[in-house]
């Protein structure tokens, strides 16, 4: 499920760095080998050459940074979702042109249905919550620049998928953990230019209020924003209240109460993003890049429906229409894939 912070001061490189750092830390034990020696940085031999992971990482970090950068041009969240839902279309076009992929009419229809479904659901959800696709005060030039940034990210993501497909076809499809590890570790040095901004956001985070106390700074509560869609704060606050607000707290609860709330949000967000990206890498090793983008589109809608249920929001008719299109498109794509595999087996 996509998780967003309710505080504007925690948006930006700090969140992205936390996600990358946590993923690198969690995955590094699988690759540590003391016998490999210092020249290999004590990392066990790779199944895929390092230069290939450098290229893959360049695609990976570029897509992440561009998607985050788009918000600087006042691209609204609904428009962000709508534009990124074109991933399967971009993947199909790039695969056709650069990877000699051929698709049936059923597959093309399923991708069209999926894309239209996510767009319809995102628009309906935005209207139901009183959100606008266009951010107030955003100029046409700013919106077009943000649109261009997202379009470039979408195209690069399609090329990343094709490159991953070729790597797995050449070296085998059991190396997704290696992709997960190196794509995050090799990305960490690229955060050095953002150090001043990360340091500022980190200080603001440490000055935020604790789960049972006021803010440590008069300015720390001035940056609270409104969540038009489900955010991590509303969930984490419930967890914190249940664990802290007891008559006879034990030492662990006292420690929990002393930790800044936004630090908890940051850790929870990084953990959920790790689980998400882990699943994406596993899926990309087992299926085609087009299938991955389609599954991610279906996940977006499932996340939207789940958030509506959890937070008690109204289920607009447009969301139901979008859901129907997405699930029918997903079923059609699955059927076409199964039919293609059967015909391939018959030929053999």
From TrEMBL:
The protein's topology relative to the membrane is: Multi-pass membrane protein
Which compartment or compartments is the protein found in?
Answer: Endomembrane system
Question: What InterPro entries does the annotation carry?
Answer: SCL35B1-4/HUT1
Does the record's keyword annotation contain Transmembrane?
Answer: yes
Q: Which domain of life is it from?
A: Eukaryota
Q: Which residues cross the membrane?
A: 12-32, 53-71, 77-97, 109-128, 140-159, 179-198, 254-277, 289-310, 316-335
GO cellular-component terms in the record? endoplasmic reticulum membrane; Golgi membrane
Q: Does the keyword Nucleotide-binding apply?
A: no
The molecular function terms in GO held by this entry are:
UDP-N-acetylglucosamine transmembrane transporter activity; UDP-xylose transmembrane transporter activity
UniProt entry keywords in alphabetical sequence: Membrane, Sugar transport, Transmembrane, Transmembrane helix, Transport
User: Which coarse location class applies to the principal site listed for this UniProt protein?
Assistant: membrane
Task: Write the protein's name.
Answer: UAA transporter
């Amino acid at each position: 499920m996509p998780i967003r912070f309710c505080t504007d001061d925690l948006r930006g490189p700090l969140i992205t760095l936390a996600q990358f750092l946590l993923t690198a830390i969690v995955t590094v034990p699988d690759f540590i080998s003391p016998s490999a020696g210092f020249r290999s940085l004590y990392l066990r031999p790779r199944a895929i050459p390092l230069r290939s992971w450098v290229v893959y990482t360049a695609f990976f970090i570029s897509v992440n940074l561009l998607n985050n950068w788009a918000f600087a041009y006042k691209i609204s969240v609904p428009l962000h979702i709508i534009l990124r839902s074109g991933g399967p279309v971009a993947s199909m076009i790039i695969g056709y042109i650069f990877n000699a992929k051929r698709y049936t009419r059923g597959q093309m229809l399923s991708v069209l249905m999926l894309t239209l479904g996510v767009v319809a659901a995102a628009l309906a959800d935005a209207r139901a919550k009183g959100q606008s696709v266009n951010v107030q005060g955003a100029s046409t030039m700013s919106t077009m620049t943000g649109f261009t940034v997202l379009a470039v990210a979408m195209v690069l993501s399609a090329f990343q998928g094709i490159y991953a497909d070729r790597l797995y076809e050449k070296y085998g499809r059991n190396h997704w953990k290696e992709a997960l590890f190196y794509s995050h570790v090799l990305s960490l040095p690229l955060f050095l230019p953002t150090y001043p901004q990360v340091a500022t956001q980190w200080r603001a985070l440490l000055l935020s209020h604790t789960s049972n106390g006021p803010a440590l700074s008069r300015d720390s509560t001035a940056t609270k924003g409104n969540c038009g869609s489900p955010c991590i704060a509303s969930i984490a606050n419930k967890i914190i209240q249940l664990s802290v607000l007891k008559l006879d707290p034990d030492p662990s609860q006292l420690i929990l109460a002393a930790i800044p709330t936004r630090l908890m949000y940051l850790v929870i967000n990084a953990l959920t993003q790790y689980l998400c990206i882990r699943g994406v890498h596993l899926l990309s090793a087992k299926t085609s890049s087009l299938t991955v983008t389609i599954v991610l589109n279906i996940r977006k809608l499932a996340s939207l429906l789940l958030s509506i249920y959890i937070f008690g929001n109204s289920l607009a008719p447009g969301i139901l229409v979008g859901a129907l299109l997405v699930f029918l498109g997903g079923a059609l794509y699955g059927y076409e894939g199964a039919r293609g595999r059967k015909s391939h087996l018959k030929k053999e």
